Amino acid sequence: MARINDHYLKLKAGYLFPEIARRVNAFQQAHPDAQIIRLGIGDVTEPLPPACIEAMHQAVDDMARRETFRGYGPEQGYAFLREKVAQHDYAARGCQVDPDEIFISDGSKCDTGNILDILATGAGGNTIAVLDPVYPVYVDTNVMAGNTGPADARGEYAGLVYLPATAQNDFTPDLPDRRVDVVYLCYPNNPTGAVASKQTLKRWVDYARDNDTLILFDAAYEAFITDPAIPHSIYEIDGAREVAIEFRSFSKNAGFTGTRCAWTVVPKTLLGRAADGSRVSLHQLWNRRHTTKFNGVSYIIQRAAEAVYSPQGQEQVRQLVDFYMGNARIIRQSLTQAGLACYGGVHAPYVWVKTPQGLTSWQFFDKLLQEAHVVGTPGSGFGASGEGYLRLSAFNSRQNVEEAVRRIRDRLGVPV
Ligand code: MLT
Description:
Layout: H1 16-30, E1 37-38, H2 50-63, H3 79-90, E2 102-105, H4 108-114, E3 128-132, H5 136-144, E4 160-164, E5 182-186, H6 198-211, E6 214-218, E7 244-249, E8 262-265, E9 271-273, E10 279-281, H7 282-293, H8 299-307, H9 311-337, E11 342-344, E12 350-354, H10 361-372, E13 374-375, E14 377-378, E15 389-393, H11 398-411
Parallel strand pairs: 1-13, 3-4, 3-5, 5-6, 6-7
Antiparallel strand pairs: 2-8, 7-8, 9-10, 11-12, 12-15, 14-15
């Protein structure tokens, strides 16, 4: 009989979002007439930008002719897309990122999990820090890799360094009080919606340089930043090329959650340490991993992603982002007027709501579902410091968002 990876047994039974879906489906079955509005998982609802659709149609036609047909593409992504990303997302912001430092993939969720393949695992491996609350993938994949001990009663895994993000620190925790080997940062933040200023990111980069720390920077929500002073990429900070890997995505800005396209930047200047103390290029390791375990994103999808950078695509993506941020504004303003303490929702499509009347996150989730037929995401699902909060996503139609906040105000009896 095959031996299993015992580390999986340390995990909570289900991943957060499927667990929520399970509870919502059970409620829907028991109440078939309830018109449930889902503001839980951050999944987009609006159609793809027309420029992307047009590019996909053309790419399908390419596949129909022998002269333009494509089989296996480069595992790292087609040059036409890597060059556009390098130009628009980096050079245009004054960052130096070369096209061959960009690895096109099918998602940041996969990449932030898979990156552990090239890092030491288990005892004697790396000390790893995460913000708390945190996107659960960072923690769960470290548990799977054997980088933690068991979870305690609060759900915190032994061996991880948790950096609490609280209202007191504006949900942007300070540097760790000790040396860590790896830190995951996500700005604009999922789930709190907090952002990091240039000074904050510089402190992290300086810390990483001083301590030989690797920053895993998840910027999947950068398109939602509304203040021009806030950095969109960690590479806007001098010295970041020596300490940071960046994860980016077309999921939230261009609505590719179902289409799947993202990228990871691994600068050639970034090094890790081997067991014998020698320094090794992480770019080479990630390239080796990517070419061995991944066969590239489909040509049709990469053409669609390329179209995001056309003048029409840029305008259409801007409209999509503005639309969702309009939803975020409505959620934040209406619930604040109703007496709920709300954070985020200004530079991110998530509003982080303090639960009323001392309810736990799951109690408020249940109340919202049962009384308003609105689905949120319990803050405690993102970590112990998320207890007492609930995340509402701005990804839905305007009509649904307006109806959801109206129901929360009218039916929930939250303090007004
Ligand atoms: C979320 O709701 O946090 C996101 O959908 C997560 C993801 O993009 O995987």
